[in-house]
Amino acid sequence: MTFAPHLTGSSRARRTVLTIAVLSGALVVTACSPSSSGGSGGTGAGDDGRTTLTVWSWRVEDEAAYNKIFDAYEKSHPNVNVEFKAFKATEYNKILATGLAGANGPDVPQVRSYGQLQGTVASRSLLPLDGKVDLSGWDENVVASAKGKEDGKTYSVPLARQTVQMFYNQGLFDKLGIKAPTTWDEFVAANDKLMSAGVTPIAVGAKDDWTLPIVHEVLAGARFGGKAFQGEVQSGRKSFTDPEWVGSVKVVADLAKYMPKNVTGVAQTDAQTLFSAEKAAMIPGGSFDLSVFQKANPAMKIGIFQVPPAPGSPSGSAATTAGWADGNFAVSARSKHPAEATELVTWMTSKQFGQMVNDEIKQLSAVPGVEPTDPLLKQMSDNYAKSGSPYLLLTDFRYGAPSGTELLGKGIQQMLLGSKDAATVSKDLDTGIKTWFKPSA
């Protein structure tokens, strides 16, 4: 099956394969498989002589955007077809591992970052890209996401810088005479006013515990000290039982009254629906959520703000925007077209690609010097540039098991259920991480 590079819209969309199933641990592709369409397991050349590269991703919602992006690549690389295949996010890790181990995997897989990249690196499934891609001048926090922990080699090209912040319904705020808060007292007053008006102040989906570390970062990043705390905990001068960290976890408990009733039974998709349906006024979320909200309710005027520092925050602490890199692209060690696949991944370091990531996928490109055109994305980018901090448990504490995000997510969920307090959640986090984490000093 071959596809001309100029095809767009429904014609181009037919080349994207989204149907998969996992049966007895084996990967089953129910539409065009890579081997039949010239991917890693096939000849790689169609009747027109073009090389077909398969790109795998977990971002089904970005199918149309990626097709448009790869159309642009094909125009400048007329001997290449790029076939984009997206799979269900919750099944992607298993599907990718199976694909990379066999003959029918992708040429260019979208891979996880930081600690979650290490298993793929250890399996020798990816080609090192040192000397082939140039990431000099990139954000250090972003570049760290693409490297092997043990050998320090670069195995992927970061796609996007993700940030977390509070989204709010600006129209609803205006209607109730509320302004985006700049102090903690203003933040609490806004929550109280929304509650009095019969509106859920903060939409949280605590049934999905993976979201709760994000909620914690948005609500309490300044309370534990943001970037300053990173150096102290990495060196061993502080731990997750430190009063500042415990206080930050307690912030989430203190704000639970502003969340949906029976919040631990509310899924993240339900929380997003509450916000999009204008039944909740705010929702802590990532930059990757912006396009979801915009598509769900195009008429809603969305704003963002950094939650002000809660009482007890370290001296001089200011509102922060936590960030990390996510969605990196790599080259499969089993690709039959490593040169062409590497050329595609190298193009992903270009400003042309970066600008399309901003404009089409509506995410903050990891490529330096690329300016977002969406005003909210620009605000997120500016906030991170001015007062950014790492999403600590993801960037630094996913290199072992149990991971920091897993421990904190489950711990906060139990705290919201009433079975643990903030001190216990923090102690369990510290104990779990210390089974594999060794301070640098």
UniProtKB/TrEMBL annotation:
It is found in: Cell envelope. Gene3D superfamilies: Periplasmic binding protein-like II (3.40.190.10). Keywords: Signal, Transport. The keyword Transport applies. Residues 1-31 form the signal peptide. InterPro entries: Bact_solute-bd_prot1 (IPR050490), SBP (IPR006059). Belongs to the bacterial solute-binding protein 1 family. This is Extracellular solute-binding protein. It comes from Terrabacter terrigena.
